[in-house]
Amino acid sequence: MEIEYQEMMEVMAHRLAGEPCVICGAPSDGMGVFVPDNPEEYGAAAGKCRFIFYQICDKCRAPGTKALETVEAILMQEFTQTTMN
Ligand SMILES: [Zn+2]
User: Fold this and answer.
1) Which residues lie near ion ligand 1 (Cβ < 5 Å)?
2) What is the 3-state secondary structure (H, E, C) of the chain?
3) Domains of the chain by residue range
4) What are phi and psi of 46, to 5 degrees?
5) What value does the mean pLDDT take over residues 65-78?
6) What is the whole-number distance in angstroms between the Cα of residue 19 and the centre of ligand 1?
7) pTM confidence score
């Protein structure tokens, strides 16, 4: 289980390499992962969990910026837009 998680992180890091910061669009400094409390709203099958990966810059993830809340709002909007259409 732990190895699978690590492999998944490596695959996603590779896939997201070069993507801009999800919040401000600047060149990103690293990857983050968001695990929603309500994965079904993000397209997961019932009872399955879902990991959503994103790129973020140091400025946006600095302490006190509420990065997680901002990212959550952005991702929620993206996912609801794609599933509604
Ligand atoms: Zn940023």
Assistant:
1) 21, 23-24, 26, 57, 60
2) CHHHHHHHHHHHHHHHCCCECCCCCCECCEEEEECCCCHHHHCCCCCCCCCEEEEECCCCCCCCCCHHHHHHHHHHHHHHHHHHC
3) 2-84
4) -55, 130
5) 90
6) 11
7) 0.78
